[in-house]
Amino acid sequence: MNLTASCAASRPCIGDILLAYAVLGVGLLFFVSRSNRTTLIGAAIAFAGGIFLLVAAVLSASNGPSTGIVADPAALDTALRGGFVDAAIGRLDALPSVFATLVVLNWFPAFGMFLLGLVAGRRGVLAQPQAHTRLWRGLLVGTIVALRPPARIPPAPPAGRSCSPADDQARVVVDTSRHGPQRHGWERP
């Protein structure tokens, strides 16, 4: 049984959302008395900081083999199967790496969204939607663009074959079976 299955089996996992909301809510108190401009700058810094930390985490994880969020998932899984004290000690051992992952993946974007919500509440975006039609139209267009299906990506060439334009003429196949002509530069006729 893996960590996910252990956590789903009637035991609460590490990283409850209430912890994040409590800590971020305390941070939000700093911006309550600030101007909208300062709050928006704080939101931009939160988003930029989150992106920077995410890129740094991905680059550091790509240097070698990774076990995921928890440094020793087998030890945590064993601890979660034990008694209350074993589970508590296992969670405390895993807490630093889980906490760092939650901060990078969740807290920075969530804090930026909280700050945007604070500014939206001050400006009455939900209380007076007719006064903010431009914003609502932009959100609608952005949502439609974000939810559109991705562009079709051609399949990768098989291992050992290159797909250079110079010898593309020798390897073009026209497939009309399903969706009309489709060219794959790496297939042989």
Task: Set out the fold topology.
Layout: H1 3-8, H2 17-32, H3 36-61, H4 73-81, H5 84-123, H6 133-147
Helix pairs in contact: 2-5, 3-5, 4-5
Strand share of the residues? under 5%
Radius of gyration: 25 Å
Counted by DSSP, the helix tally is: 6
For the record, give the distance between the C-alpha atoms at the N and C termini, rounded to a whole number: 47 Å
Q: Could you write a compact summary of the structure shown?
A:
The protein is an all-alpha fold and 189 residues long. It contains 6 helices and no strands.
Describe it.
- The protein is 59% helix and 0% strand.
- It is mainly alpha-helical.
- The protein has one domain.
- The protein is extended.
- The two termini are 47 Å apart.
Which short descriptors sum up this protein?
mainly alpha, disordered N terminus, 189 residues, 59% helix
